[in-house]
Amino acid sequence: xxxxxxxxxxxxxxxxxxxxxxxxxxxxxxxxxxxxxxxxxxxxxxxxxxxxxxxxxxxxxxxxxxxxxxxxxxxxxxxxxxxxxxxxxxxxxxxxxxxxxxxxxxxxxxxxxxxxxxxxxxxxxxxxxxxxxxxxxxxxxxxxxxxxxxxxxxxxxxxxxxxxxxxxxxxxxxxxxxxxxxxxxxxxxxxxxxxxxxxxxxxxxxxxxxxxxxxxxxxxxxxxxxxxxxxxxxxxxxxxxxxxxxxxxxxxxxxx
Length: 256
Ligand code: MG
Ligand code: MG
Prior knowledge:
alpha+beta, binds magnesium ion
């Protein structure tokens, strides 16, 4: 994948559209989260997400994306599956699973992209810690998305938070600019050095997405050519928000 992608600064009017796209994406998340119970299939989760999108006259940018074309509107990645799990009727949630849901919404030509991980029933202490660390890492990254900082400051904030809690960040999958395209510049890895990378400017919109693994940074892709799993089978988690850089506080677009 080439990352010589353009960076598009959004106008206030465009940011408003992206905020609305983000609101709808948050509604999809809330709907799917309610369904995270033992016995529910991952295809059921996708169907519920599509229903919400349809109600809003929206589609997901995931469907048909890439090679081979991604078949569904959300990705559902369970336990050792880090990202890009493909929903299916035969895959049922079990008590103790942790489930990552990634969804996008296209609204009036703009994309919102966000993800969360949550438990099914009772989850282990380690799983609870992993979820908390990954969500906190996302917030740590968002907090430094300020004019004058650089993408490396965001990357370093995420990496430092995760590694200080004994977990690992992926090297292969990154945050990214988001707007009319799901993937725009700049690329924002989950590791990096402060003071390096692209200068952040007001109107930049970036999907920040820590992908965290308990036992290793190494991943591999399953034969379905999409599902990314931890190389050692250890648990993984993924949280993501699309966020706008402003002259003031960072503006999280993908909240209700
Ligand atoms: Mg995403
Ligand atoms: Mg993303």
